[in-house]
Automatic annotation (TrEMBL):
One of its GO terms (biological process) is regulation of plasma membrane sterol distribution. This is Protein ARV. The chain crosses the membrane at residues 150-174, 186-207, 243-262. Mediator of sterol homeostasis involved in sterol uptake, trafficking and distribution into membranes. InterPro entries: Arv1. It is a multi-pass membrane protein. Pfam families: Arv1. Keywords: Endoplasmic reticulum, Lipid metabolism, Lipid transport, Membrane, Transmembrane, Transmembrane helix, Transport. It is found in: Endoplasmic reticulum membrane. It comes from Odobenus rosmarus divergens. One of its GO terms (cellular component) is Golgi apparatus. Belongs to the ARV1 family. It comes from the Eukaryota.
Length: 281
């Protein structure tokens, strides 16, 4: 996440600070700078305006960060930062960090991250189901039944997440201004939602380090994931907080409808409510 845009380079701090003083020693290189990726469209992390480049690469490895013409600030200061610092800022849900990750870096792990998060959630539900139905019978049929329970939980978790996304997309499509010049980029929004769901990875430590406050941990993880989704929607579509909040509520409503449907079908979905009830019991 700390790479310098799609070019894969991350300039050092000392190089960018000494560009002005070192222009005279570049043998005329400053007169014909090379754009980092002029054909790509980036975003300023401060004002969200489009930019043609993040930095310019002069000869002799001298790099200079591009200044935004709108806000007069660096287009992307995070290209100098360490990935750990960027991750911390993303955990703090800073809009600048989200713009850097979503617009100014090339990340192709959306599908893998989604599958891994669903596996974590399916494992949590499966663990809860097995914990509430303990059986010491070593029969192979019982073991195979438990294995298929895990696959069932994975399918249910996938359907619930799909319903959550459908609820968000439906609300945003209905609320889309009819006179808008640009249509919402739902593909980019989907990638942003998948990336911002990384908080589900915390479900595994919550199960491994089981204690009396596990239900509280699960609630906090859920709130963190929803907060990250909220920030991803606001940054990706550049809309106000009210619409982002309503979009999250629409997704939760659709997800709750899916859970209610499964419960009417008498399927044990291993939902959060079921986890809390079983543990309190």
């Amino acid at each position: 996440m700390g790479t310098g845009g799609r070019s894969g380079l991350r300039p050092g701090k000392g190089n960018t600070e000494g560009v002005a003083a070192g222009k005279g020693n570049t043998d005329g290189a400053a007169a014909a700078p090379t754009a980092a990726s002029a054909s790509c469209q980036y975003r300023c992390i401060e004002c969200n305006q489009e930019a043609k480049e993040l930095y310019r690469d002069y000869n002799h490895g001298v790099l200079k960060i591009t200044i935004c013409k709108s806000c007069q600030k660096p287009v992307d200061k995070y290209i100098e930062y360490d990935p750990v610092i960027i991750l911390i800022n993303a955990i703090l849900c800073k809009a600048q960090a989200y713009r850097h990750i979503l617009f100014n870096t090339k990340i192709n792990m959306h599908g893998k991250l989604c599958i891994f998060c669903l596996l974590c959630e399916a494992y949590l539900r499966w663990w809860q189901l097995q914990d509430s139905n303990q059986n010491t019978d070593p029969n192979d049929f019982i073991r195979y039944a438990k294995e298929w329970d895990f696959y069932r939980m994975f399918a249910i978790a996938s359907l619930e997440q799909t319903a959550f996304f459908i609820g968000i997309f439906t609300f945003l499509w209905v609320e889309r201004p009819m006179t808008a010049k640009k249509k919402p980029n739902f593909i980019l929004l989907l990638k942003a939602l998948l990336l911002s769901s990384y908080g589900k990875l915390l479900l595994i430590p919550a199960v491994i380090w089981e204690h009396d406050y596990t239900p509280l941990c699960l609630r906090l993880i859920k709130v963190f994931v929803l907060t990250s989704n909220f920030q991803a929607i606001r940054v990706t579509l550049n809309i106000n907080r009210k619409l982002s909040f309503l979009a999250i509520l629409s997704g939760l409503l659709m997800e709750s409808t899916m859970v209610y449907f499964f419960q009417r079908m008498e399927w044990d979905v291993g939902s959060d409510c079921a986890i809390y009830k079983s543990q309190d019991f």
